[in-house]
UniProtKB/TrEMBL annotation:
InterPro entries: AB_hydrolase_1, AB_hydrolase_fold, HAT_MetX-like
Single GO cellular component term: cytoplasm
Gene Ontology molecular functions: homoserine O-acetyltransferase activity; homoserine O-succinyltransferase activity
EC number(s) stated in the UniProt entry for this protein: 2.3.1.46
GO biological process terms on file: homoserine metabolic process; methionine biosynthetic process
Pfam families per UniProt: Abhydrolase_1
PANTHER family: HOMOSERINE O-ACETYLTRANSFERASE
Protein name according to UniProt: Homoserine O-succinyltransferase
Organism, as annotated: Crenobacter intestini
Highest taxon above the source species: Bacteria
Transferase in keyword set: yes
Gene: metXS
Catalytic activity: L-homoserine + succinyl-CoA = O-succinyl-L-homoserine + CoA
Residue positions of the active site: 155, 320, 353
Primary localization: cytoplasm
Length: 380
């Protein structure tokens, strides 16, 4: 296996401006917008080796590499994307994009509203997975990519891969849907609402227009992230890493941080609240809630997936209780009923929902094997 330290090296982001209005599923219209993206590898002569990476809730376009040698961390999927890695940039042209409504450069709530010159804030319209895919398709047109060799995503990114397969069936040859689901369960919608309420009730939120007040709703976003992070981990994983370890070795009989798991969650919440936009968190969780391709087909998921022409890889992880293996099997069952070609893997992992970001050897081997076939078909 290629050295896991191999990297795409130093990268830079790019910006694409679109002036053709985009009508959203809500009925709102974005007259113009920008998407920030990164690319790795080289597009071949017939543009047959392009792969789109769709990010999850807190993800973005910076998938691999570093912006500077001094950067402590690489892109969020650097363990999977790079020379000789499963998504091999010596063979594929890989595209990562920050979705509409994001807070890492693409047009979103923190961007300037052209009508006012001030941040959009609460005026930014809600977006859906379908809206993201439509915007991504326009970016593909701009890059000269008529058909993706593969569209890949984990969690919310997997929902985008599914949406691509049915909205643009002639533009996707393979769809890799990892640790995802065809719609959220009631429990997942409930988790999202509690997280949103933490933000909405923060006194510094100001109805979404906190930018004008020079403040940030850090407390609400911190609590939202802490709650979300608990759902991304498994009980066994947390137990193995933290157990009931006390920071000082004894009870302090108070409400400050005593257990190591408390310290970890507060650290994650604090870090997230300094780098993520609260309005973006709200609209991303709503996009998760709204995703349900079967809704337009009287709840028949097989009928919803019938237009797809892609081949599918669906993968789940045994310890993922946020998007459990049962939800992936639901997708597989519908794909088979719709007569689609699908491979399914249920991978043993203690990492919970976050397993799709990790380097568990069986997972890496699965991705490598499947994408090797994708590369061969693309002549890469």
């Amino acid at each position: 296996m290629t050295d896991s330290s191999s990297s795409v090296g130093l990268v830079r982001d790019e910006r694409a401006a679109f002036v053709t209005p985009l009508t959203l599923c809500s009925g709102s219209v974005l007259a113009a917008y920008e998407l920030v993206f990164e690319t790795y590898g080289t597009l071949n002569a017939d543009a047959s080796n392009a792969i789109l990476i769709c990010h999850a809730l807190s993800g973005h376009h910076h998938v691999a590499g570093r912006y500077a040698e001094t950067d402590k961390a690489a892109g969020w999927w650097d363990n999977m994307v790079g020379p000789g890695k499963p998504i091999d940039t010596d063979r594929f042209f890989v595209v990562g994009v920050n979705n509409l409504g994001g807070c890492h450069g693409s047009t979103g709530p923190s961007s300037a509203n052209p009508d006012t010159g001030q941040p959009w804030g609460s005026a930014f319209p809600l977006v859906t997975v379908a809206d993201w895919v439509c915007a991504q398709a326009r970016l593909a047109d701009r890059l000269g990519i008529e058909c993706w060799a593969a569209v890949i995503g984990g969690s919310l990114g997997g929902m985008q891969a599914l949406e691509w397969s049915v909205r643009y069936p002639d533009r996707v040859r393979h769809a890799l849907v990892i640790a995802s689901a065809p719609k959220l369960s009631a429990q997942n919608i409930a988790f999202n609402d509690v997280a949103r309420q933490a933000i909405l009730t923060d006194p510094e939120f100001h109805g979404g227009d906190f930018y004008a007040h020079g403040v940030l709703p850090r407390r609400g976003l911190r609590l939202a992230r802490m709650l979300g992070h608990i759902t991304y981990l498994s009980d066994d994983g947390m137990g193995e890493k933290f157990g009931r370890m006390l920071r000082s070795g004894e009870y302090k009989f108070g409400y400050d941080v005593e257990f190591e798991i408390e310290s970890y969650l507060r650290y994650q919440g604090d870090k997230f609240s300094d780098r993520f936009d609260a309005n973006t968190y709200l609209l991303m969780t709503k996009a998760l809630d709204y995703f349900d391709p079967a809704a337009a087909h009287a709840g028949d998921l097989a009928a919803a997936l019938a237009p797809a022409r892609a081949e599918f890889l669906v993968a789940s992880f045994t310890s993922d209780w946020r998007f459990s293996p049962a939800r992936s099997r639901e997708t597989v069952k519908a794909l088979i009923a719709a007569g689609k070609r699908v491979s399914y893997a249920e991978i043993e992992s203690a990492h919970g929902h976050d397993a799709f970001l990790m380097t568990d050897p069986p997972y890496v081997a699965l991705m490598r094997a499947y994408l090797d076939r994708v590369a061969q078909e693309a002549g890469a």
